[in-house]
Every structure is written in structure tokens, then in C-alpha cells.
Amino acid sequence: METLRNKILRAAALSAAAVIASASLAGCGKKIDPEPEVTTPPVTKVTEATTVPTTVTEVTTTEPPPVEPDPLEKYLEYYEENNDFVGWIRIDGITHSNGDPWIDYPVVQGDDNSYYIDHSFENKKSSSGAIYADYKIPITGLDMADNVTLYGHSMKNGTFFRHLLDYETTSTKTVNKAYIINFDTRWEEAQYVIVSCFQIGIYDWQDDLPLFEYFKCRNFDTEDDYNYFYENIMLRSFFTSGVECEFGDQFLTLSTCEYNIGDDSRFVVVARKVREGEDPSVYAGTYEFNEHRHRPSHYYSNK
């Protein structure tokens, strides 16, 4: 008969074997514990989304804003005298008997196109006025109009823009000698080559063509804007030349009074800014009289 001691020893051995077997199954990872009984719904904590959508941040490099260049030292005294001073115009090819240019003046730009009609550069009342730039688009060291218009009186004593009328001729002598216009701003020295000289009325009744308001052609936002301007100035031009122009060029327009087509008519000279690296001397002698130019119809009624 099995003794009590032996029974206890056998029971202990069986229990130890069971523990070893259980530990062996748990260690291999194949044991799946049964799901606990659920008597109440589990409480889920509401939190913000744990996954953040991936966003691609575009890396942009911003260029620093352009810095206005320093004004030219040679013009500082003129600006100090009159803060409306924006530049200087000179035409070397049209001169006094002593060789000095007739057109050699400071240029101002006011708050309107009226003040400098009868005020001098010194801000004094004067029938001669001053040479002034169209006020609509300010001239700065960083920007100005694609086509800057300068106005000046045609004084009988030959001053201001009177000698622009020297271009109003069938002879090409003057234009082939004085085809370069120097127009400096306070910040830059520049040259322009003449592309057109023409007479025009400022009222509809002075011509049988639609009125061409050259003084409103300031910026050429589109190529059509530029083509309208260029085709109209060349249609009327006294001369043709070898000077080529294209969309993107900058222009200078000089305007003064003349009286061949009535009291309110103008003589206009248009020049293109010399491009970087361009030699303007190649245009000397290329100007020819344009026999087919359009003249305002009122010109003939005055003859």
C-alpha cells in the first residue's frame, strides 16, 4: 500500500510537471489568453488626432528689395535748390555761335502739369516757365515711365525748346548732326537717339485721322500698347533712320508749341534710350527725309 509520504511526493511531482509545461507554452508566444468578459462598454478617451497630415512646406527664397542708387553728386546743388529737380536735358548738336548748346536745362517734375508752365526752376513767376516732366509717373532712382514726356515753351528769343523746331525741315542736316539727346536723371547719365520728329494737333478737328494723344503714352503694358505708339510716331515722322526700336525699349518725348496747323499744335521729338553696349554713333548719317509722312489735314487749310 502506498504510504501517505509517497502520495504527497507523487502529487508534488505531477504539479511541478504541469507548471513546467505551462511555462514552456507561454515562452514560445503561441499561447493566446481568452478575451475577458465585457460587462460594460469600454471607456474611450477622446483625444486630438494622433496622426498629423504630412504637409510639404515649399522653401522660398525672397530677394531683398532693390536699393535706390545714390544721387549723382554733380546734381546735388540743383536738388537742394528745388526738390522738384529730377534731371537734366542737353542737345549738343544745336548750338549758339559760341558753340554752347541752346537746349541745356534742369528738368523738374511737379504735382501737376500746370505749375511750371509759368514758374521758373527757381519757383518764380515767369512766362518762360521751366522744362518739366509729365507728373503722372514719378521719376525715381529705381523707376520711371517707359516713355517720359518733357514739356517746354518755344520762346521767341530761342530759349527753352524753341530750337526743337530746327528739326522741322525737309533738310536732314540738323537731325544728322544733332541726333543724340542727353537726358540724365538725378541718379543716372543716359543718352537717347532720335527716332521721330513730327507736328501734330491736339484737337480732333485738326486732322482727318483719329486723335493721337502721344502725351498719354506713358507705360507700354502690352506689345499692342507699344505698337500703337511706335506706328503713330513713325507715320508722322519727318525722317526715317537706321534706328531700330522694339517692345521693352525706353523712350523720351520732347514737346513744344508750333503754329503751322493752328494756335494749338505741337512739334514733338521722340528718342529711344541707348541700349547697354550700343554705340549710337552708327546712326550718324542714316536719317533721310520722309516724303510719305502724314501731315495733319489742318496744315493744308492754313496754306
In short:
The chain is of the alpha+beta class and 303 residues long.
Task: Spell out the key features of this protein.
single chain, 303 residues, alpha+beta, Sortase, Chain: A, eight-stranded mixed β-barrel, 5 helices, 10 strands
Task: Describe what you observe in this structure.
- The chain has a domain at 140-301: Beta Barrel (Sortase, Chain: A), CATH 2.40.260.10.
- The chain contains five helices and ten strands.
- It has helices at residues 4-28, 76-81, 173-177, 223-236, 297-301, and strands at 85-90, 104-108, 131-133, 147-151, 180-185, 191-201, 239-240, 251-258, 265-273, 288-289.
- The strands form two sheets. Strands 1-2-3-4-8-9-6-5 form an eight-stranded mixed beta barrel.
- A hairpin with a 5-residue loop joins strand 5 (180-185) and strand 6.
- The termini are far apart.
Overall pLDDT score: 85
Q: Which CATH class of the domain at 140-301?
A: Mainly Beta
SS-derived structural category: alpha+beta
CATH superfamily of the domain at 140-301: Sortase
The helix/strand series, from N terminus to C terminus, equals HHEEEEHEEHEEEEH
| CATH fold assignment of the domain at 140-301 | Sortase, Chain: A
What is the level-2 CATH architecture name of the domain at 140-301? Beta Barrel
